[in-house]
Amino acid sequence: MLNEKQKVNKIMKLGVELAEVKDVDVLLERILREARKLVNADAGSIYVKESDKLKFSYSQNETLQKRLPAGKKLIYSTFEVPINNQTISGYVANTGDSLNIPDAYKLRSGLPYSFNKTYDDRSGYRTQSMLTFPLKNNRGDTIGVLQLINAKNAPGKVVPFTKKDEPLIMHFANMAAVAIERAQMTRTMILRTIKMAELRDPRETGAHVNRVAAYAIVIYESWASRRETSHELIDKNRDILRMAAMLHDVGKVAISDAILKKPARLDDTEREAMKKHTIMGARLFSDRYSDFDEAAAIVALNHHEKWDGTGYPGYINPFDGNAIPGYQNSDGKPRPKKGEEIPVFGRIVALADVYDALNSRRAYKERWDETQILDELKATSGTHFDPEMVETFFSCIDAIHSITDRYPDH
Fold this sequence. Notes:
There is one protein chain. By secondary structure, the chain is α+β, with helices and mostly antiparallel strands. Helix content is 49%, strand content 11%. Strands 1, 2, 3, 4, 5, 6 and 7 form a seven-stranded antiparallel sheet that branches.
């Protein structure tokens, strides 16, 4: 457990680190994890304000996590809470005041808010101490709520949150709110870019790209953890992969409407033209000012390569469209990449994208049955997809399903 000086120093350092996280989902997870560490909280949640409601956006619970097999992540459902005084989180968002509750089951009578123990009953968890803060931006507006649950002392017993922790968490919450708002702006800009693609290609929706990106980071995190990749590198790569995966098909803005909006399968000539979206997408990130630009170019260029070397566009220079010297076939065309020649991010997004495409209705096809989809992924492991990625995907199937539910098509 940290002493007061260590907590202050940690918060100052976190202010810089949080500002470097670009993706809002990755940021919310990081904020909650770090806030829990500061006060040794067993669990916690973050709610983000959307219009006149709070969206339950992220949750962690160390006790419930330990009940799961190694490598499995805690699955939770998102829901909305009205911003009024009837719930604890709603009260904090509505009033802008924080609440430090020693025992949620022993709230005194006469309070406007109450504790809903439905989740405790369903999960077998016992919520006791709660520390709930508004997330306020620089203008003083509440953009969400940070809730920490069950502080633990050194021996591991649940105790109330101390009063002296309140100003520290309040300061951290204010820094977190600024970082969240900045990340929300980044997400909005990406979604606007995708909206342009959606105007051209009705299949390229915000729900689709959010699902593909979320699938991708779940697969990556599990795959990287198995390889004992450091937590720092995993966090960094999750951040850039999340955003890069959202833009995997952005090159379609350069493809003609006659091809993109054709309500039937493409002929061979149209299919060849469509394949160029990978090159166009990589070309959009030719000015590489950051790790994100690099990752976005890699994903755009490589997410249609296949493990057995039958994919596209192969070893091509996206800037001039020519084969990279030394990597041509006998006809001078680019040689397809195969196996581990395909970058990791490309192999991951390829799997995530195909799963979502099969799991979605299209103008030219109905949504596949889940069993049929999973059978197809197994059958094409080692040909279309990296076998290790397919194995990882199946190990994360519960998390995959929860993402599908979180980002439904409207």
